[in-house]
Amino acid sequence: MSAETTFVNAAGFSSLLSLWMFAVGSAFPARLRGVGAAAVHLLHFCFVCTSISLLVRAWESARFPIANLYESLLLFSWGLLLAFVVLFKRTGPLYLGCLTALCVTLVFLYASWLPPGLHEIKPLMPALVSFWRVIHVPPLIVSYAFFITSGLLAILNLWSARRRRTAISCLMALALCVVSIYLGTLKLASAPTINLLFWCGLTVSCFAILLLFWMETKSKPVRTELYEMTEAICQKSITIAFPLLTFGIVTGAFWANHAWGAYWTWDPKESMSLATWLSYAAYLHLRAREDCRTDSLSLCAFLGLLLTILTYLGFSFLGMGGLHTYGNLA
Amino acid sequence: MRLLKTNQVSSSICSFLSSLQFTIVLLLLLIVLAISGACIPQIGQAESALTSGPNFEQTFPLLARLGLNDVFNSWSFLICVAGLFVNLIACTISRMSEKIRRRLKPDDLLDSSQVAGLRQVVSFDIPCGTASVLEYLQSNMEALGYKVSVGGKCAVFQKGRAAWLAAPLTHLGLVILLLGVMISLLFSYSGNLNLKEGDTENISGAIEQRGPLAHVAELSVKLLSTKSDSHAGGEPKQWFSTLSVSKSGKQSFSGSLCVNSPLTFDGIDFCQSDWKMAAVALSLNNRKVSVPLADMPHGRMGVLNLSDDLILICALDGGPHLKVYLKEKTVSRPRFLAALAQGQIVPNFPVVIRYEKGLPQSGIKFKCDPGLWVTYTAFIFFFLGSIFVAVPNLKIWAAVESLGDGASTCRLGFNGVKSAHIMREHVRQIERGMKRQFNTDALERGVVTSNER
């Protein structure tokens, strides 16, 4: 087993273990306070292991380790752990750590499902041989990690604001995404079936979310400690991620002009990243309104979460084409 | 009366056009259009996506009729972009001018009843005079990095005033971007050259996109040489081309380019966009022939009729060797003959077939875009604007009222959602500090009221 695989496995197992410890610690917060603290330390250990595995892969491949979906997933899990380290500095409720541990575990699981060829270190194709790869890709992947964190916190925020039915329908939409990714990655269904399932399901879910939200917003949100905390961390997360996404898109345009002679070609990935950027621009515009409600902001952050998933992984499980196909499963 | 009505209508139209609701609706429409543009295969895209295949119009006639196979050139998209531009201008005139005026005028102070109406308010009763409370607030808020303005029994504390630059910078970026795109649409041109070694082509004959006011330079491009570097496993590593560019018939410039390293001459960028082996040169019994190659799943392949019922198949799969097969019309599977390096002959075959060399073809994209630097400037504005989004904009108002008998009520309040958690934390810090400072049980716990709807 290579050194990189050892560190990736250590990171995967520590994230899984910390997930269990967070779950147990959250169930008995008074009695098992030490378990929660240990889970936080374990997640920090996972962050260190992921960082080392990226460094080892960089050293072994003699290049920055971003060339295919597997490598980008490693960086993505590193970004999720970075979000945990940056955003949850002070000891917050254990379920916040639980969210990160769950996401990181799922990402490692997803990475392990990928075809073995993607795990191997492969040489770069001519289009990727550029310093722009190091400048353009990492900010985007890290911004996706922060956006996903903020989207999950937004669901928690809706739950804590007593928008329970909206929060549940958001979770169902998210589950639909996860199922579609699972089916698409393992090729358990044909591309048209997955597309049909995903788009029909998502359209129905979005209508249900809006309808339930409209019904629930007749009452004032209940301000609890969790509500204020999730609101604060969600905002902070988007505030960090938005400049990173902008930087990633802008540097992508510079690179595209350098490599393809056109800074914008309405490639599917470009169009989706624009949709994601616009959704967070809508979030910021909504936030600028002095009479804006936090639950509306959370809904917007959740919309951003769906678009982020679609931008990042949609090309793998929905089989979209375009110039960014090096991120695909093939 | 009619004039009054007309004024009311025009002012309500203006306020709608400059409203944030209008912005959000336009952004949502653009999101929907961008998603459909990403998921539905678009005309002229490099690779078709999803289920439709090449006959999109036959497969989904309704979607094609709605213009969803060319979303980014459709009227719906262009109307949304135009709407956003109108919204931006209206917003800039009505809101930004107000914001700038507010920045320039002295800080606005709110009295106690106005503070009570803010989004979040904390009230305390303190057993000391208003002057001491204000003095305490001033020194502590200054310690937290706030700029303090006091007037009478009111005060306003501000921090991170640069955050207001986020919107103007991003909006200015959008205006510059639209300007850059307009310049590009009118004055730019681009195209592709597919050249074999020694070929010369005039760029005016290879233009694929040209703006109505574009002036195309009279340039001819000659491919002097081209080569492909491969990794150890045979995967392509880099493609190189050396060009000679002539202006008005005189050779003006020559240079090399590769992928991600374009060449610029006379405002025209030349990019290495593609490289392939176009044909292979063979000699058949000392007769030179060229076999054109076409794409196949794992490389390139070409066929040559040797006789009425014999076909020679040549295949290149990334490696240096040419694989040669013989196919008889009556037999379904072709027979492998040999893998030839350059100069080698197919052994034990009645016809002397020698692999002379591969004939590569270099794909060069050229582009002249006078609006490029304007667009790049817009991108920089976007990025700067997004950086200022991250700056917390903190503004807390305070008002102190005397209750008589040496006691007073202090109200601290703030508006907005952005950075509300930081302001909330600072207000709580002040509350805790006051309790310590005045060291009295008479201090009631701060009553937090939220005016959030």
Question: What's the helix and strand layout?
Answer:
The complex is a heterodimer of chains A (330) and B (453).
Chain A lengths: L2 H25 L5 H29 L7 H19 L6 H20 L2 H4 L12 H29 L3 H22 L5 H26 L8 H36 L7 H21 L5 H24 L13
Helix pairs in contact in A: 1-2, 1-4, 2-3, 3-4, 3-6, 6-7, 6-9, 6-11, 7-8, 7-11, 9-10, 10-11
Chain B lengths: L1 H16 L2 H20 L16 H4 L1 H5 L9 H30 L7 H5 L3 E7 L3 H14 L3 E5 L2 E6 L6 H22 L1 E8 L3 E3 L4 E4 L8 E12 L5 E12 L2 E9 L4 E3 L2 E17 L2 E6 L1 E3 L2 E7 L4 E7 L5 E7 L6 E6 L12 E16 L3 H18 L4 E11 L2 E8 L5 H19 L8 E4 L3
Antiparallel strand pairs in B: 1-20, 1-21, 2-3, 3-19, 4-6, 4-18, 5-7, 7-8, 8-9, 10-11, 11-12, 11-18, 13-14, 14-15, 15-16, 16-17, 19-20
Helix pairs in contact in B: 2-5, 5-8, 8-9
Characterize the structure shown.
The complex is a heterodimer of chains A (330) and B (453). Chain A has 330 residues and is mainly α. Helices cover 77% and strands 0% of the residues of chain A. Chain A folds into two domains: 119 residues; 207 residues, no CATH class. Chain B is 34% helix and 36% strand. Chain B has ten helices and 21 strands. Chain B starts with a helix and ends with a strand. Classes of the chains: A mainly alpha (330), B alpha+beta (453). Chains A and B meet through helix 8, helix 9, helix 10 and helix 11 of A and helix 2, strand 8, strand 11, strand 18 and helix 9 of B.
Tell me roughly what share of residues is in helical segments of chain B. 25-40%
Shape field of chain B: elongated
Q: Main interface pair? A: A-B, 74 and 67 residues
The tally of helices of chain B reads 10
Assign the structural class of chain A, choosing from mainly alpha, mainly beta, alpha/beta, alpha+beta, or little secondary structure: mainly alpha
Total helices of chain A: the number is 11
Average pLDDT rating of chain B? 83
Number of DSSP strands of chain A?
0
Looking at CATH, which topology of the largest domain in chain B would you report? Double Stranded RNA Binding Domain
Q: Regarding CATH, which class of the largest domain in chain B?
A: Alpha Beta
Write down how many β-strands of chain B occur, each being a DSSP E stretch of 2 or more residues.
Answer: 21
Strand content of chain A: under 5%
Percentage of β-strand residues of chain B = 35-45%
CATH superfamily of the largest domain in chain B: Sirohaem synthase, central domain
Spatial separation of the terminal alpha carbons of chain B: 37 Å
Largest sheet: number of strands, sense, barrel closure of chain A:
none
**Overall 3D shape of chain A:** globular
